[in-house]
Amino acid sequence: MERRREKNPVEDAEFSSFHARLTIYSSGGPFLDGYILSIIAIALTQITPQLHLNATWSGLVGASALIGIFIGGFLGYVTDKVGRQLMYTIDFILLIAASIAQFWIQTGWELFIIRLILGISIGADYPIATSLLAEFSPKKHRGIMLGVTLVAYYIGSTVAYIVGQLMLNIGPDAWRWMLASSAIPAIILVLLRLGTPESPRWLLQKGKRAEAEKVLKQVYGSSASLDDIIVPSAGEAETSYLKLFSPGYLKRTLYVGLFYMAAVAPLFAMLTFGPEMLTSYHLFEGASGYGAAIISFLFLIGCIPALFLVNKLGRRPMIILSFAGMTVGILLLGLFPNGPVSIILFGFVVYAIFSGGPNVMEWLAPNELFPTEVRGTAVGITTSISRFGAVFGTYLFPWGLQKFGIGPTMLVGAAVTFAGLLVCIALAPETTNKTLNAASNVRRDGFSGKHRAHS
């Protein structure tokens, strides 16, 4: 009997005002991530002499939020257990408190601890917000909706550099106001997120059928039903870290974690110490904050074509092509540390533009490749794996500049990026145009699972 080809009210839904609001609210975490990780770059120009930080402590302070994100990523397990909506606002309360507390710190270790707490709240928000967004996203719009969250990261980063450079005029204690300023957008986002519904996929997976159906009809209309989002029934598929390392899903865990790590290890170091990096290249001297804002803006621009190519070109071809371009860009920065300026600028542009592919895939891939019962756990674990590399990259960057200079330091980044290219060639699957159920379903022996007839 021929299978019916009727439209699925959920997977084939049109982009609505609800989807627009949820995308904006879910992008709040990445915006604050970019803001918090970048504002420290400007603040360190005042903090370092005032608190007498050496290269080791400067690296630790720069990496502290990343270490926190590594820890916070493990809280993805909690969001799979207790739900997306509850954690969606709670984590930002911690972020607001830590942001304000930075105003009163007196020592390097105090700043390290508080920014570690900031990172934990950001790391927790990644699996919470992106899982919720993915589970409400129609398949046609999923790539763009999740990709926009990464655009928000670079908007936050660009805004931070500009705000930081402007606030330097306040005086020697301007850095305190810079760091505490992240509380303002965090408060706004907490208020906006109030009233966001729980994921119907999570509710159904927990056996809360009536609540799940109520949310579905509120968001997608009276024609939507539980049959449109069939997931394993309650008790059939429990949340477990071990599932991420089971046959079939192990390759996916390695793929996402390793490509994510290879992408962000050099990138976060460059963003966190943007002014120092540009000074090493003798660019934007005297206004390195604005120069760093321009570099961050280039990363933002790179995300825009990737938002559309992720569906048209496909997930696998796009990320392979992107890593190849990034490798060329950062290799030029390592091979020509003394110029000419045209080659240095060209290297920055190429690296930034091609980084859009991995940026878009960093949260799209784990949300598509893992099922509802471990989706938050998967996003959290792969984020933690990526931050493991980012911590070392950010911690070692100022030490590398001091010990070896900018050229050799960037060549190490090129080697890491090339390793990411090899990971994608070997492991990247193709999930373009698949429903969320089909994309996350695997056989024990590979990436492409058979999806259910109703998918």
Automatic annotation (TrEMBL):
Domain Major facilitator superfamily (MFS) profile: 22-432
Membrane-topology descriptor: Multi-pass membrane protein
Family affiliation: Belongs to the major facilitator superfamily. Sugar transporter (TC 2.A.1.1) family.
Sequence intervals crossing the membrane: 31-49, 55-79, 86-105, 111-134, 146-168, 174-194, 253-275, 287-310, 317-337, 343-365, 377-397, 409-428
Keywords tagged on the record: Membrane, Transmembrane, Transmembrane helix, Transport
Pfam family, one: Sugar_tr
Localization: Cell membrane
Organism from which the protein derives: Alicyclobacillus dauci
Keyword Transcription appears in the UniProt entry: no
Protein name, per record: MFS transporter
UniProt KW Transmembrane helix keyword: yes
InterPro entries (alphabetical): MFS_dom, MFS_sugar_transport-like, MFS_Sugar_Transporters, MFS_trans_sf, Sugar_transporter_CS
